[in-house]
Amino acid sequence: MQIYLECPCTSFPRSFARDFKETYLYPPPSTIYGMLLSLVGEVDLNAHVGVRIAIGIIGVDSPISRIIRKQRNHKYDNGGSEHKKRVAKYGEQVYPSQLLSKPNHQELLTDLKIAVQIDSSSETAMIKLAERIAIALSTPSQISRFGGLSLGESWALVNGVRAYRESDGDVRWLIKDNRGLIGLPVWIDRSTTQGTFARFSLGEFTKDCWVQISPPVSLTPAKPPKATRKKKSD
Length: 234
Hints:
This protein has 234 residues and is of the alpha+beta class. Strands 1, 2, 3, 4, 5, 6, 7, 8 and 9 form a 9-stranded antiparallel sheet that branches. It has 4 helices and 9 strands; from the N terminus they run βαββααβαβββββ. The longest helix has 12 residues, at 29-40. The protein is globular and about 60 Å long. Helix 1 crosses helix 4.
């Protein structure tokens, strides 16, 4: 199935961005997968592992705006001199807001319109993601979800989701290309914040547009258990 969605204002912060929140120019596959799960009310990231998606940009690239906004920075207590100074001044386990929030520059994308194709043939779930999306679009009363539907950051609400129409415009598809200049995350491990990345280029739809969503498989073989020696009895 192929769907159309538009978002008036959003941001896809780059994985290594710090004070200056740069954005990816195109929606990452990991973000699109999370948005589709939110659409059907699924909270388990592994529920539809194996699904394949293809992402296309409708029209020209979205313009980038740069703003200044207050952003929250997470503090990690290393137990060193900073910890002792903070405890002496504010008390144990207290982080005043002025230590966590400060104005930073951020990039935004505006008037983003994309097309997404979903192929659930490789899934193992009993009810495929494509089927659940079809139900959500045709009879929304049959699904249970919460919160607004966002694309990118939580404040970036989408205008709507529906089936793609040819009148929506021509689509430029993201194509997997090892020499492509577009690097995007495909899977993000929420426990470690580490991810799997792929490179893309833009062009006509081909079989290389399909991206399979699945966690990376560890290439390190498991160590065999050590043999234990039995003590000789006297």
